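Look at one record.

>
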Amino acid sequence: MNHLLRSIAPIAEAGWKLLDQEARERLTVALAARKLVEFSGPMGWDHSATNLGRTDAVSESPHEGVATARRRVLPLVELRSDFSLTRDELRDAERGAEDIDLGPLDEAAHRIACAENVAVFHGFKPADIVGITEASTQSSIALSDDFDAYPGHVAKAVELLRRRGIGGPYGLALGPDGYTGVIETTEHGGYLVFDHLGKILDGPIVWAPGVQGAVVLSLRGGDFLFDSGQDLSVGYEGHDADTVQLYLEESFSFRVVTPEAAITLTA
């Protein structure tokens, strides 16, 4: 038995298979950061910290004539999003029903995906996570209200990255409003803004719930590191006569290795 306690839940194997599949489909769409940064793992629930390869000097020593240093690590943060499903719906799923109400799972998946995106792109100070926009040493670029102007903004960001020796391909994380505006906009001459951006970047344009404005970043590798302990999983909390209490949970650390490898586009 592991900490997810799935083996003691009143859910049959077919029910767990459905929940895992549905959670995966919903999370894959919304987990923007993982599409743009370097993902390592998962390394398991018991993996607690990322080695930073550095030390801090300790002023005192346990014995005269012996130098002392302490290894620096970045602790993993745990994210958890609770939800409940009715036992009637779960029983119907086991009978083969295809119209199961999984609205609470949808909401939980969206919440935890947003939390991960915010931590990676904008940081989470209580867990010592410095986000990409916080760490960036590049000057930000103001976004126009006119989506026709987005190719110019992104082209400027790509050019600034190249001037600093940051190679491509490049990716673009767009907050929901910006993403909707881009996919709905056609430039003069009938060329889609989305397609134009893709040619400039030579990389993906990602819908990123939780992100404010947009971020252009290099995808060359080694600049933005996401270490996964336990990857997102569905766990069991408890149940009563009517409902089963479940949760989505993960553990991870994130660090920016090359602060100049991203540019923030501010709304």
Q: What stands out?
A: DSSP finds seven helices and twelve strands in the chain.
